[in-house]
Amino acid sequence: MVQHLKNKTLMEEELSSLIIPMEKVAHVQLKNPLEHALLVLIKSGYTVIPVLDPSLKLHGMISHSLILDSILGVEQFEMERLSNQIVSDVMNTDVPVIKREDTFSRALNLSINHPFLCVVNDKNEFLGILTRRSILALVSRFLHS
Ligand code: 2BA
């Protein structure tokens, strides 16, 4: 079983079908004001979401905590920063990325430290996400079959 998963690429594995496609992933644009990003985060219910540009290329991730941290003044929140700052000012650019040609083993390793991985193509265009939950569900199915 281990050898099987080690050599298979995402494309060959049924995990590929578990990728949540871009249209269903809550995301924001680089130039959106923080106010808009916070609204999308709150409305979607997710804590961290991808940041894209108008051509749908992946640039980073934004979270509640990054936004709150960036509007924190010395003694209080500086609420005007929500409209003065944009997503690219505060996003995290250290994004866990995976391609369909990558091995399942790489996805599993990356998912140890990340709740989800961004799936991109060779042009860095965002295709969707793969959650740690779906990766573990597949491992569990293999272990029990
Ligand atoms: P979190 O937002 O921290 O969510 C952690 C887990 O809480 C999710 O695990 C899911 O089980 C649950 N959850 C949170 N918000 C939810 C909602 N609006 N609807 C249903 N369940 C919700 P996963 O589903 O494994 O997702 C792991 C991480 O992947 C999420 O972490 C989020 O950062 C990202 N994510 C998942 N689906 C997403 C989507 N459609 N759009 C944007 N980001 C997504």
TrEMBL record:
Q: Which SUPFAM superfamilies match?
A: CBS-domain pair
Annotated CDD domains? CBS_pair_bac
Q: Is Ribosomal protein one of the keywords UniProt gives this record? A: no
Q: Which residue range or ranges hold the CBS domain?
A: 19-79
Going by the UniProt record, its keywords in alphabetical order are: CBS domain
Pfam families xrefs = CBS
NCBIfam families named in the record: CBS_CbpB
Give the protein name, as stated in the record: CBS domain-containing protein
The protein's organism comes out as Alkalihalobacillus trypoxylicola
Taxonomy of origin reads: Bacteria, Bacillati, Bacillota, Bacilli, Bacillales
